[in-house]
Structure formats: C-alpha cells, structure tokens
Hints:
Shape: elongated
Largest sheet: 8 strands, mixed
Distance between the termini: 31 Å
Bound molecules: zinc ion
Number of helices: 11
Strand content: 15-25%
Strand order of the largest sheet: 1-2-6-3-7-18-8-17
Amino acid sequence: MQHLAKPFLVSAALCMATVLPAHAELDVARLKAAIEASVEADYPKLDALYKDIHAHPEIAFQEEKTAARLAAEMRALGFDVTEKVGKTGLVAIYKNGDGPTIMVRTELDALPMEEKTGLAYASHDKTSWNGRETFVAHSCGHDIHMASWVGTAKTLVGLKDQWQGTLMFIAQPAEETVSGAKAMLADGLFTRFKKPDFAFALHDGAFAYGTINYRVGIGSSNSDSLFVRFRGRGGHGAAPQATIDPVMIAARFIVDVQSVISREKDPTEFGVVSIGAIHGGTAENIIPDEVLVAGTIRTFKPEVRAKMLTGIERTAKAVAAMSDAPAPDIKITEGAKAVMNDPGVVATAEKVLKAAFGDKLRPSPPGTPSEDFSEFINAGVPSMFFNIGVYEPERVAAARDGSGPQLPPNHSPLFAPVPKPTIETGVAAMTLAVLSTFDQHARGK
Length: 445
Ligand SMILES: [Zn+2]
Ligand SMILES: [Zn+2]
C-alpha cells in the first residue's frame, strides 16, 4: 500500500465530537484515483493470490487451505483474525477509532464440477464430496471475491486517516449449499463478535468488467425445496378399482400446482414452482404404492412465498383426497431467503459510486438465483449486495448483438473472468461503498 499523503475530505473529517465544522462531501474523483493507483501498485500480489486460489479450489466446508491463506493475508495487514467460525469461516477485525462497524463478506467455496477453460491457472483438483470423487472449480468466481476482499482490506487500511470505526471482514464457507452464513451465525458471529451496523458483499457476473449492477430492495430470490410423497395402494394395472393410484395423483398435482402460480398469486409478482424430479413405479402393469415428487419454489417477497407454500400444500392434500388416498408427506425445506438491499445504505453508496463510475453504475432487475448473504440482513444488518462484470466490454457487446458467441455464465465449466480489471473494479467499488457509509455516519446523517 503506497502512502496516501493528501487528505481526501475537503474539510475536517472528525466532526462527530464537535458540532463544527460541518463535514464536507467526499472528494470522490481524487479518492478513486488514489485507490486505483494503490491497487495498481499492489496488483501483482493480488493476481498471485487469485490464481493460486483459482488453481486450488475447495468445496463447501472443506475450505481449510483457502481460509488459512486469507487469514495470513489479513494478519499481515494488522487485522485480528479468528479462524474456524462456522466450521471453516474467518472473522477479521480492524479497529480504527470510534465509529460504526462495517462488515464486508466474501465466500470461500468452489463448486463440484470440472473446469474446462484451458487457462494456465485452471483447476485440475479433485476432492471427495457426498461420498464420491469430484472435480472442483471456482466457476462461480468466489476467488475473484476473495482477491477483491483482500485488496479492499489493504486499501482501507492504507486510507485509515480517512475513516473512523471498525472493519469486520468475514470469509464465509459453503455459500453454494446456502448453509455457510447460517453456520457462522450459529457459531456466534453476531454474539461472540460485535454485530455490525452495516454490511456489504459483491458478486461477479457475465457482463462487462468495469461495470457495477445494483438495486434497492430485492436483489435475489427466496428458494425453497419441495418434496412430496404421494401414498396409494399398489396392485394390478388391469384392476385399478382395487388400487389407489399414486401415479395419477402425482400427475394431477404436477399440473394443478401451476394454478397456484397462475390463479392465486398476483400475476405481477415473481414466483415459480418447478417440478424437477418424479420417481415412482417399476413396470408397465403394476400400480405402485407411492410416488415421490421433488421441485423448487422461488419467490422474491415473503408474502408471495407464504401464499405459494400454502397453495402448494393445499393442492397436494386435495389431489390425494380426491382419490381417497392417505394424506401425502409434504416436506418444504427453506433454502436461502431473498437479499433485501437497504434503501439508506444503497442511497449513500449510490451517490459516491455514481460520482466514481458514472454510467458504468447501473440499476438492474433482481436476479432469480438465491444467495445466503440474506441471513446477515435478516439478522438485522442494513446491507448492500451488488454485482461486478468480468468480461471484455467488446465481447459482451458482440454477444448481445449476435455478432459474437454467448459468454459463459457463472457455474459454466468455461466461466473465465478477466482477472485484473475485474478485481480492480471490485476493490475500488467496495472501498468506496464502505467509505461512503463511514462518511455518512461521520456527518451524523
Ligand atoms: Zn454459485
Ligand atoms: Zn456465487
């Protein structure tokens, strides 16, 4: 971190104790230039960190080497690091006077899949997962998030005369299985450590590097898993009158459950139920005893979710009752809840990010995937979750107008972010977002 000699606030920052002088606006242009110069100077180290993590990914709750690597980086920066929070998670604290505690989260985990990018630093690693061997790859770009997280920590420490408060940098395991955030909270993330006043996280995506997508309110979907076991009475296919046919009950359910979406839910609200698996029967002339149906339920709003869950359950019971079958076993497992971006936190960051990135900062529609950063928000921490692009703008434009190939999205074996501009944007955007909140607080707003 190079020394940033000049102050970036137009007037005194430490106005909390005194009424005057009024705290001035951040000089965003100069601040951004200083952050960029600092990241540029430090980039070779971030690049090496990124490529090492990329080449040696670890899957949910196995991220021991990755966590140890990040712990060493944060200790070298002067953070007080606690390891093994929520199995493999990390909490790194840096105190710098009176002020709010701001949490910045990265994920640690990779995916159980084979990377096919052919990059020099591609992963060839394998691991044991759910009892079988699998390749592992950072095909969701969580390695980009980790490099940006370390870069942001370095930059904020270098700028410590520009803010007052506490940094709480956390590295979370098992995002892909939406269980790591819960594990950290269950292990005392907000009780053993001070609960943060605000939180930020970013995620990369298959759009142009240098651009940042964000939104107020809902940023990702609620996800619930559905399992229904329809029980009947098995028998001969030629004598259905002596049976209760669970295949027909399941078939009715699969069709009728869509009426919950089309007739009960407000058509202007997002909500889907997709049946992804149906298992039952062994032969053409045997009516089986039972049929298992499994699906996923996605929504944005809690009230829409509640309405859909009630309707789905009622439909399952009703189709069984129609055939005089026993009540079905219904299991709905809650996955991630929707990420709700706080209007105040977003408005504060938006002003600064707009001044720094201009039209490269873009409001975006909510995404239908799910994300367990919502656990921290639902624990009562006003937050902002935003996205950064990873591909060359020209390639993105060509894919959009059809003159070039489609670009591999997250979770594709070909997902291949361009590291330098992606990580640099991640560091600059996250640093400015955090500084905007410290600044807002210092001004007593
Ligand atoms: Zn993912
Ligand atoms: Zn991800």
